[in-house]
Amino acid sequence: MDRVGSVTLKLRIHHDAAVAPFEQVRVQISEQARGGKLPVGYKLPTVRGLAEELGLAANTVAKAYRALEADGVIETRGRNGTFIAAAGDAAERKAATAAAEYAEQARRLGLDRAAALAAVEDAVRAAYS
After folding, report:
1. Of residues 87, 88, 91, 85, the one with CA closest to residue 42
2. Three-state DSSP state, 88
3. 48 Cβ partners below 8 Å, 6+ apart?
4. What is the pTM of this model?
5. Is 116 exposed, middle or buried (0-12, 13-18, 19+ CB in 10 A)?
6. pLDDT tens-digit profile of 17-28?
7. pLDDT tens digits, residue range 50-96?
8. What Cα–Cα distance (Å) separates residue 44 from each residue in 30, 92, 95, 108?
């Protein structure tokens, strides 16, 4: 993939996998960014460029980039390109906001604390399995 200094974006798409290609792109970039392999400020390839390199449709890569931007992993700076964002803080803020919204919804639904926590534990277990 793209190389800047000693940093290389490494993506591998498995076309026969059950996971959609856009999700494979999203997960791999997210993991590399959050794991520090792609530093904050690293410039990602253009949508068209990455799509061509991976043998994917441009819309597939664009969908992955939109999801990554919504997650706070990347940021688009207009014509300057797309870069790895300082995602840690953004991700933690989004998670805290989602948790607060869930807690309020659970309270309105009449769930007690134990039931609300059990629902979260089940959802997290399912998401990480």
Report:
1. 85
2. helix
3. 58, 61
4. 0.67
5. middle
6. 999 999 999 999
7. 999 999 999 999 999 999 999 889 999 888 999 998 755 666 767 77
8. 12, 23, 25, 43
Closest CA relative to residue 38, chosen from 71, 8, 11: 8
The structural domain count of the chain equals 2
Are 77 and 92 within one domain? no
- The parent domain of residue 20 ranges over 3-85
Q: Cα–Cα distances in Å, from 48 out to 24, 77, 97, 116?
A: 17, 16, 33, 44
Domain co-membership, 81 together with 93? no
Are 71 and 99 in a shared domain? no
Instruction: Read off the amino acid at residue 29.
Output: I
